[in-house]
Amino acid sequence: MMALSRADTSVLGRWWWTVDRWTLAALMTLVGFGYVMLLAASPGVAERIGASSRDMFILKQVFFLALASGVMITISLLPVKQVRRLALLGFFGALLMTAATLSMGVEIKGARRWINLPGMTLQPSEFLKPCFAVVAAWLLAEARSSGWRATAAACFLFLLVAGVLAKQPDMGMLVVVGSVFCAQLFVAGINMFIVAGCGVAGILSGIAAYFVLPHFQSRIDRFLNPESGDTYQVTIAMEAFGHGGLLGVGPGEGRLKALLPDAHADFVFAVAGEEFGLAICLLILAVFGFIVLRGLLRLLGEKDMFIILGATGLLTQFGLQAFINMASALHLIPTKGMTLPFISYGGSSVVAVALGMGMLLAMTRRRLMRTDGE
């Protein structure tokens, strides 16, 4: 791939010999899958909504995939200290913009999660997720030397994020952020009663959301009793998996994708199932699993608690987001509008995931080269 000598002391040379190239290759494989699935799913969606060009989604997403790849590699070049500073700036910037959606955001399906920008729509909470995971890791790591105040600060920031997400409302995003924070508390060695208390609080919040938020209640009811409401997309998705069988009907040959309003986004996994079959779906699942397990194994022997907590948070977030998307398409959990990392259409999502994975690659580079404040 790259003809770089181990004696090369340039920034690129040091990066190449210290970065986890297996994880990088797996991530770029997902980017490749994203491009293929975009070609398969988006033209039909563009035609159905009457877009001026059937290639509209393709052209946009190719740009975002290229941008995401550049962002991921650029951030992976950074020393750990710079990653921490970037996450801190990104967190407060994304938090302010996420809060701004409550007053000036675009309302879609009863939720205000997006801000209109020239030529695109931005979802700031997507960037809030990875940045919060790193900031929380920094505070929880600092708690070992500075005591309970750092832990209290991390909990305060989590409650602040949770409050904004609940107000939008975006319960799926809140579940992901809450799960990441609980995982980090557990790894940090926080008293188990506190971790259990967070779990109970999460369950009680879910119960409260069921009675307070009509759309949340509707999704739960339709999952438990499909006859209680509209299950059109899930029904079509399940038919797509069945139609695809083991090897699929072939690239571009799927017919059920034309009936799925979100075939290019939330239900892209169903398109993969119809056109490429169970074999490719299992391969996609295996790539996600490899990235998560490889990342966790990379932490074995790591002594820096910030790196352990930061990488754990980012990997938990990445794996959980993939699980929610695929499980929703397979009707294993209630449907949730959450993208499949690097594969679903969506500029904010793909760039935000690249931001998180770039920080992961930077933090898991071999300690041999972590000098000069890294």
UniProtKB/TrEMBL annotation:
Under the heading InterPro entries, the entry gives: FtsW/RodA (IPR001182)
Keyword flag Acetylation: no
- List membrane-spanning regions: 22-41, 62-80, 86-106, 147-165, 171-188, 193-213, 276-293, 305-330, 342-362
| Pfam families, alphabetized | FTSW_RODA_SPOVE
Where is the protein found, in the record's own terms? Membrane
Q: What is its EC number?
A: 2.4.99.28
Q: Which family does it belong to?
A: Belongs to the SEDS family. FtsW subfamily.
Q: What is this protein called?
A: Probable peptidoglycan glycosyltransferase FtsW
Principal subcellular localisation of the protein:
membrane
What keywords sit in the KW lines?
A: Cell shape, Glycosyltransferase, Membrane, Peptidoglycan synthesis, Transferase, Transmembrane, Transmembrane helix
Catalytic class of the enzyme: transferase
Query: What membrane topology term does the record carry?
Result: Multi-pass membrane protein
Please give the catalytic activity noted in the UniProt record.
[GlcNAc-(1->4)-Mur2Ac(oyl-L-Ala-gamma-D-Glu-L-Lys-D-Ala-D-Ala)](n)-di-trans,octa-cis-undecaprenyl diphosphate + beta-D-GlcNAc-(1->4)-Mur2Ac(oyl-L-Ala-gamma-D-Glu-L-Lys-D-Ala-D-Ala)-di-trans,octa-cis-undecaprenyl diphosphate = [GlcNAc-(1->4)-Mur2Ac(oyl-L-Ala-gamma-D-Glu-L-Lys-D-Ala-D-Ala)](n+1)-di-trans,octa-cis-undecaprenyl diphosphate + di-trans,octa-cis-undecaprenyl diphosphate + H(+)
